[in-house]
Design goal:
654 residues; seven-stranded mixed β-sheet; seven-stranded parallel β-sheet; 44% helix; flat
């Protein structure tokens, strides 16, 4: 049927049709000069103000060949107010479209070989697009799905008409049609994708662990502590975890009690907020967060990788990605004031500084299990250590200065036993020194070491937070730490700790001996009290305090209104960053493949030379044999030799 729409600068003709044939019949009979509005009856008819906006957007450019409205759920409210007026889309999506009449004259009607109206309309959009006419969505022209339709088809926006869209039938004429959604994703407004979340005031949270290293460290202890805290909450069902399979298995995430997603099961899922409990340093992480999460909260641990070239060169584009993660985040957690200060100094982003929430970390209340939690050979190490040893906390990275601290203690005359957590190949063998490789020692073994140590030593030259200081406070052990702001900031959080600071490594042994002497013990730890006890200090700030504060901050971010312009800006910037990161990754892969090709070619050349040498040796032996043999066997041997040579050169034996 046809019906004129009043109160529009140009009055279009509205056509309501169920089939392609009915739509074409109506189009043939119309005589509208400016535009024609084609409407499927699967959704409600656009209101006059919606039609007026469609016309206005069409008049913005003569290349706007088809203009379609936004589709909104009935309970979505006005989420289009902050959107750009229009943006291009791949083709008609099946609700309603305003068509320039001249397109019908120049390029024909809908193709009736397609079974349904949605697919035929999409084909028409693709057909005229070949000649430079775009299909654009008018964001202020909104058509709401009727309640019954929205209920029948769930939360998917546009599901009522998209169910009839058949991509396969279009691929013969338009082989690229299935790729178009990805190509247009940078132009599509994220509000359209996240509208169900906005409409329902969804508060789901995705804890992103995509790039976490499967090893035991301060970062992983923090992560597992937060997961355990979230799992204990009454609303734990709204929290999900994304992790790669290796990390999921290593940390036994399936036993935590939260939904664990991987690369396959996360597809199609959307969350009101994505929380990253460590640093974002990869463009793929940003792209993932923008695609799945309406809001994001990231964490600033430290920026050591900006201070040391050895770290930076391994991820040469990390600076840009990290900076953009701070700009794009709705909230930022810094684990210390020192970490925030260093970030501000190196990146100078005032907008980022305003979003940073400093939440100091703490000491884990208990250890955590992992797939490596098997004492194994470490029991032998523990058995050989006398209680009261000096424990040096660190890892394999040079700035932890574990090897330098060991050398300083030996050089300065510290005669007690030393246990250090670091890189096993960084030390010369010596009596009284026990080295544990960081990242693999089970937590229950580390618990025993911390309890039996008489003195903690923390020689690191750069930190975001001083975990060993928190541990020393918890276990009631004295600690010697490098004198720098972050160490003093951490110590102030733990008034229970007995801490001494040093500036020069040469002072370390003297301080260690003083701590032992002051306590009235000998350096070998023979005094039982110096060895510590099985009790821990009460009232020490723990990771549970950190977890509680972070969770409260996430709730604060969830309550903030959505900034649609900022969301679109972030999506487009992240898409560019992801593309750049992918190109860089591809280049590194090509470089590695070329290096492998050169290596294999060299091996092949070496093998050919060896065969040639062997062939020469065999020929010499045959000639020697022929020279000493009788005439009767000479001819057959020569014939046999010729055959061997032909075969060796790839010839025929005939």
């Amino acid at each position: 049927m046809s019906e004129a729409i009043p109160n529009a600068s140009v009055v279009p003709l509205t056509i309501v049709a169920d089939t392609v044939a009915a739509a074409n019949e109506a189009l043939q009979n119309c005589s509208v000069e400016a535009a024609v509005l084609l409407l499927s009856n699967h959704v409600t008819k656009p209101a006059p103000e919606c039609v007026a906006e469609l016309l206005a957007v069409a008049e913005l450019s003569d290349r706007h060949g088809i203009v379609i409205p936004r589709i909104s759920r009935p309970d979505a409210g006005d989420v289009a107010v902050d959107l750009p007026r229009a943006h291009p889309v791949p083709h008609w999506d099946g609700c309603a479209m305003l068509i320039r009449a001249e397109l019908l004259d120049d390029y024909g009607l809908l193709d009736e070989s397609y079974a349904d109206l949605t697919t035929a309309g999409a084909e028409f959009s693709l057909r005229v697009n070949r000649y430079g006419y775009s299909t654009v969505r008018a964001n202020q022209a909104v058509v709401a799905l009727p309640p019954a339709v929205a209920h029948d088809h769930g939360d998917g926006v546009g599901a009522a008409h998209e169910q009839h869209f058949d991509v396969k039938t279009l691929e013969d004429a338009y082989p690229y049609v299935s790729q178009l959604p990805d190509e247009y994703a940078i132009w599509a407004h994220p509000v359209d994708e996240f509208e169900p979340l906005i409409a329902s005031a969804d508060r789901s949270v995705l804890i992103y662990l995509g790039y976490i290293t499967p090893e035991l460290s301060g970062t992983s202890r923090n992560v597992v502590s937060f997961l355990n805290y979230v799992a204990s909450r009454p609303d734990s069902g709204r929290f999900s975890v994304y992790a790669e399979n290796a990390a999921s298995e290593f940390f036994s995430l399936s036993s935590v009690g939260l939904e664990v997603l991987d690369e396959t099961s996360v597809e199609g899922r959307q969350f009101a907020l994505g929380y990253v409990p460590f640093q974002v340093a990869d463009a793929g992480m940003l792209e993932f967060l923008m695609r799945h999460c309406l809001r994001t909260v990231v964490t600033v641990l430290d920026v050591i990788w900006m201070r040391t070239n050895e770290h930076l060169i391994k991820r040469f584009y990390s600076k840009a990605v990290f900076h953009e993660s701070l700009e794009f985040a709705d909230g930022i957690v810094a684990i210390s004031q020192a970490s925030q200060t260093d970030t501000d100094m190196l990146f100078g982003c005032k907008e980022c500084s305003a979003k940073i929430k400093v939440i100091p970390q703490g000491c884990p209340d208990v250890g955590f299990a992992s797939s490596t939690s098997q004492p194994g050979p470490y029991q032998q190490v523990i058995g050989g250590i006398e209680p009261g040893f000096a424990f040096i906390s660190g890892n394999r990275y040079p700035h932890k200065r574990v090897d330098l601290a060991v050398a300083a203690l030996r050089r300065g005359g510290f005669v007690g036993q030393i246990v250090c957590l670091g890189a096993e190949d960084s030390f010369e063998a010596g009596s009284g020194l026990y080295v544990l490789r960081s990242g693999v020692v089970p937590e229950d073994v580390m618990e025993t070491i911390r309890r039996r140590a008489g003195l903690f030593i923390f020689p690191s030259s750069y930190e975001g937070f001083g975990f060993p200081i928190a541990e020393a406070a918890r276990y009631g052990k004295p600690i010697i730490a490098t004198d720098m702001p972050v160490m003093r900031e951490t110590a102030a959080l733990f008034p229970q700790v007995q801490i001494r600071f040093f500036s020069r490594l040469d002072d370390l042994a003297g301080l260690a001996n003083e701590v032992v002497a002051t306590a009235g013990h000998t350096p070998d730890g023979s005094h039982a009290a110096f060895a510590g006890s099985d009790t821990v200090t009460a009232g020490v700030r723990s990771l549970a305090d950190y977890d509680l504060a972070v969770a409260a901050y996430l709730e604060q971010i969830l309550a903030q209104p959505i900034d649609a312009h900022a969301l679109l800006y972030k999506r487009r910037r992240v898409a560019g960053a992801a593309l750049s990161g992918n190109q860089q990754q591809l280049q590194r892969q090509l470089t590695a493949l070329e290096a492998e090709r050169v290596r294999q070619a060299a091996e092949l050349e070496t093998g050919i030379k060896a065969l040639q040498t062997r062939e020469t040796e065999l020929e010499a032996k045959i000639e020697a044999l022929l020279a000493t043999s009788s005439w009767k066997i000479t001819a057959p041997l020569r014939a046999l030799t010729d055959k061997v040579r032909r075969v060796a050169r790839g010839g025929s034996v005939l």
